[in-house]
Amino acid sequence: MHKILNNIGKLVFGRGSVHQLSSMIDPIREKNNGKFVFIVDHFFKSSSLVGDLKLKPEDVLYFEDCDVHEPTTEQIDRLRDDILLNHGLPSGVVGVGGGSIMDIAKALSLMLTTEGPSSDYQGLNLIKKPGVFHLGIPTISGTGAECSTTAVLTGPVKKLGLKCEWTVFDQIILDPSLTHSVPRNHWFYTGMDTYIHCIESETGIHNNAFSRAYGEESLKLCREVFIGPNSGQNEENDDKLMIASLFGGLSLTYSEVGVCHALSYGLSKILGYRHGYANCIAFNHLHDYYGDAVLEFKQMLAHHSIDLPQNLSSGWTDDQISAMAQVSWNLPHMWIHALGHDWESKISLKDMEGLFRRL
Ligand code: NAD
Ligand code: ZN
User: Fold this and answer.
1) Which residues are near ligand 2, the ion (C-beta closer than 5 Å)?
2) Domain at 10-179: CATH code
3) How far is the CA of 343 from the centre of ligand 1 (A)?
């Protein structure tokens, strides 16, 4: 069976395109109570961007803090309950921020029409109803969350997405001018998320012409942004990285991620490491799986003088390492893609612990 891809309905790309938001959401106000809920990263609390969103008086605005932790199921339930209790079922949700806010907006849209704790729905096709209209405006490039069909949440037991046919955004606004303020380290780590999505998507059994086409174009853009003669954070590269992120997301959506993401999820769930950073920590030690791509990654690290910490595992307890290995083990779709359907005969839980001990 081939995957049926749910794609974004409408997309606008370009500097200043955020000003087109009203024209995109106003026609949707006819549905439900006419209000829109805006979930905006707290980084923008006192920025002019909030004025550019042109909220109507009846709209509801939440500034969410993504510094402390990645999105949690508890956070989605709290937002959903507050909105339904105090404002009713809105016409739609707009998310403005990095990958964390993209996931919060997608998950919230679904949970506004689905009862019960969102942790019950972490997995594939567990949600049975469409959510409300949702539109994403990414302000960091790299995660691909603006186009992916999953809303990744950390719950009491697992870090896993709400993944169903209604998760993907109905519309997105890709305005690269919103990313100019991303701090350099974070720009690198989240940008590398895209690079790693493409390498992993192409290195596994689900690779196909569709994924490869998007992955190759995204990798070309990543190379221009991170090692080309004009590399670094500048307007031209902000434009390129936003498209690289989109294409990388499409590449992995129609294929799968692999070993690096399986380890990265363990690092995030047990130690709270941020996604892009956790990927970089893991990818740096996966030469036996991803060969020359790891060497190229090291070149990019050196080019931008990014110092990744070494020997982290010497500070971890055996319990933490086995807990991380268990999180990775519980992501069979990633291992199947990377190693084949007989992955359990190729890697054991102990071997996975060994991968964490490398870091
Ligand atoms: P983020 O959204 O977690 O934000 C990181 C930090 O950057 C925050 O402190 C935020 O306040 C700040 N920030 C946001 N925009 C900024 C801007 N323009 N200028 C300055 N600071 C800004 O970062 P991220 O790396 O984009 O996203 C990581 C999240 O994405 C993780 O929660 C991860 O699980 C998720 N993710 C989801 C998918 C998916 O397919 N759904 C894929 C990969 C990662
Ligand atoms: Zn990723």
Assistant:
1) 193
2) 3.40.50.1970
3) 31
